[in-house]
Write a structure and sequence with these properties.
The structure holds two protein chains of two kinds.
Chain A lengths: L2 E12 L36 E2 H13 L3 E2 L2 E2 L2 E4 L9 E4 L6 E8 L2 E12 L3 E5 L2 E5 L6 E7 L6 H18 L11 E11 L9 E6 L2 H20 L7 E6 L4 E7 L9 E2 L6 E2 L2 H9 L5 H12 L3 H9 L1 H11 L4 H19 L7 H12 L5 H12 L5 H7 L8 H14 L1 H8 L4 H13 L6 H14 L1
Parallel strand pairs in A: 13-14
Antiparallel strand pairs in A: 1-11, 1-12, 3-7, 4-17, 5-6, 5-16, 7-8, 8-11, 9-10, 12-13, 14-15
Helix pairs in contact in A: 2-3, 5-6, 5-7, 7-8, 7-9, 8-10, 9-10, 12-14, 12-15, 13-14, 14-15
Chain B lengths: L4 H10 L6 H22 L19 E2 L9 H5 L10 E4 L5
The chains are: A alpha+beta, B mainly alpha.
The structure holds zinc ion (ZN).
Chain lengths: 467, 96
């Protein structure tokens, strides 16, 4: 039997405010345990949480970017549960009146609908060790938005496209740094399967603790296969929450529906309701930045890039910024060639983040287009710029990577290569075009990759037309 | 009205409190009285009345996004029943 996979997401995004959502503690990542805390965020009785105004700005920016209707009158509710990651024994969240509803994300020519987005506070970090649990509340009270999609995705590719698009928009908005490894972007995957074409949904499971795009791909492959196997062998899927263990490549049951928690939501009396005016929403809408889609169209038109290249260069805000700043003072085409080729290659093979900045990058591109260094030797120069190097001219000089543009030196080497490769010369003369390429290669090798390719070609051609 | 024992046990479980036999019986009566009182309120005609979640008519009570400093960790940990130099310690908690 063939199966359809049905996937919905709950995306948690930490907002990059300076202070926490309900107190003046810092949200900086990586501090010593419990050094960014106060009586409000460690849940002392008698404290009064007060909402951070920037959370509202950031939330509405995100809601509008994701094409949502903003709830003009919304409020916070208490979600009650006993677990030490929230010392108050409840989380301040939004259930009845989330601030945004009915949006969508474009992925190619498909729309993934967004059911709602709500604001809430993040929980603390637990470290389980030697039979005890150690509590660090630095993260407790960091503002979050939770984006809940409709079950509109059918495979890992669509899930990743959806997350990539959401991440890109939030980065352009500068409302979150979206670092999956640091947990500032986290996704829970709700997944069910059904016989192909069936209109009735199967029972879904929820997978938590997925920390990278790669892990999402593996978790979806594993869970859909598991569900299909259970159903095919006559079993039933139980509605449960599962924890993804990426090292084991398996998911494990955390809790089933029978012992699902009863959160007893009620309006939080500490936080008065929120009311958004039309003017406030309009002012946010007016100041929205240019997002990837519009930027890609503009790049294609302004810099003569293919739509595909323009899309790759604009998905990530920093990449787009680097491109545009560099292309202002260097060849836009050559800049794109190096970013799409060597930069992506170095980033994926070394795993290093590019430290490249526009001024030295532009100087490098100008060195290539101006013939100061060629593409082969340029790779070494680019690696230097990629790693944050700024003295491009000095580096070329110091490492002898300048292009050899001197006709006489090239002619001398060409003569030497021709003398040493009589066979290839004869082959070329008998009509084997390939032999010419071989001779170019040999000459470049003798020139240690630094010869001006156009001059080398010309010198060889000259020899053959004259002989 | 008497609340059944099962409901009292369930609510006690949610509140993480333990009740003995006589306390459970007392709660059956007392919680029952609260629900009886709520029944009076249910008789009020609320047709066309918006649900009220807050008794004050304030909205948007907010503070600027500023880091105002932190409490000394030693002071925050001072009242903890169990702790290390840097963290609160509780019996091992399983994932939820
Ligand atoms: Zn605090």
């Amino acid at each position: 039997m063939n199966w359809d996979i049905v996937i919905g997401l709950e995306i948690h995004v930490e907002l990059s405010t300076a202070s926490k959502i309900f107190c003046g503690c810092s949200t900086a990542f990586g501090g010593e345990p419990n050094t960014q805390c106060c009586p409000v965020c460690i849940g002392m009785p008698g404290t009064l949480p007060v909402l951070n105004t920037r959370v509202l700005d950031f939330a509405v920016k995100a809601g509008l970017a994701l094409n949502c209707q903003i709830t003009r009158y919304n409020k916070f509710d208490r979600k009650n549960y006993f677990y030490p990651d929230l010392p108050k024994a409840y989380q301040i969240s939004q259930l009845h009146l989330p601030f945004a509803r009915n949006g969508f994300v474009d992925i190619g020519d498909k729309k993934i609908r967004i059911h709602e987005i709500h604001m809430e506070e993040d929980a603390g970090k637990l470290i389980h060790s030697s039979g005890k649990t150690f509590l660090d509340y630095n993260r407790c009270g960091v503002p979050l938005i939770e984006i809940v999609t409709e079950p509109d995705m059918t495979c890992a590719e669509e899930v990743i496209a959806c997350l990539t698009s959401v991440k890109s928009m939030l980065e352009y908005l500068e409302v979150s740094d979206c670092q999956m490894q640091e947990g500032s972007l986290r996704a829970d995957v709700n997944l069910s399967v059904k016989p192909k074409g069936s209109t009735e949904f199967g029972t879904r499971t929820e997978m938590k603790n997925i920390n990278s795009f790669k892990a999402i791909e593996r978790a979806i492959a594993y869970e859909s296969r598991r569900q299909i196997e259970v159903i095919s062998s006559g079993g039933e899927i139980s509605q449960e929450t599962r924890r993804w263990d990426d090292n084991a490549g398996e998911s494990f049951v955390m809790r089933s529906k029978e012992n699902a928690p009863d959160y007893r939501y009620f309006p939080d009396p500490d936080i008065p309701p929120i009311s958004f005016t039309d003017e406030f929403i309009a002012s946010i809408q007016e100041n929205q930045p240019e997002f990837a889609k519009e930027k890609a169209a503009r790049f294609a038109a302004e810099y003569g890039l293919t739509p595909k290249d323009a899309a790759i260069l604009t998905t990530d805000k920093n990449t787009a910024q680097l491109y545009e700043e560099t292309a202002k003072s260097a060849s836009p085409k050559e800049t794109a060639v190096w970013m799409l080729g060597e930069m992506m290659y170095l980033a994926s093979t070394t795993g290093a983040k590019p430290k490249i900045t526009p001024p030295p990058f532009a100087e490098f591109i100008n060195a290539v287009t101006g013939g100061k260094t060629n593409r082969t030797a340029g790779k070494q120069v680019f690696e230097y710029v990629f790693g944050g190097g700024e003295d491009v001219a000095g580096y070329i000089e110091k490492h002898g990577l300048a292009q050899i543009n001197d006709d006489a030196s090239i002619a001398a080497i060409v003569e030497k290569v021709l003398a040493a490769n009589a066979d290839a010369v004869a082959e070329y003369k008998s009509g084997k075009e390939k032999a010419f390429g071989f001779l170019v290669g040999q000459t470049m090798k003798e020139l240690k990759g630094k010869g001006n390719p156009a001059l080398v070609n010309a010198a060889l051609k000259k020899h053959f037309t004259e002989s | 009205m008497l609340i059944d024992k099962k409901t009292v046990d369930y609510v006690a479980g949610l509140s993480r409190i333990q009740l003995d036999e006589s306390q459970t019986e007392l709660m059956q009566t007392e919680l029952g009285k609260i629900l009886d009182y709520m029944k009076i309120l249910q008789n009020v005609n609320t047709e066309g009345v918006e649900p009220l979640s807050h008794v004050f008519s304030m909205t948007n009570v907010t503070r600027p996004d500023e880091v105002t400093g932190h409490f000394k960790r030693e002071h925050l940990l001072a009242n903890a029943p169990d702790r290390t130099d840097e963290a609160f310690v509780v019996p091992k908690a399983v994932d939820v």
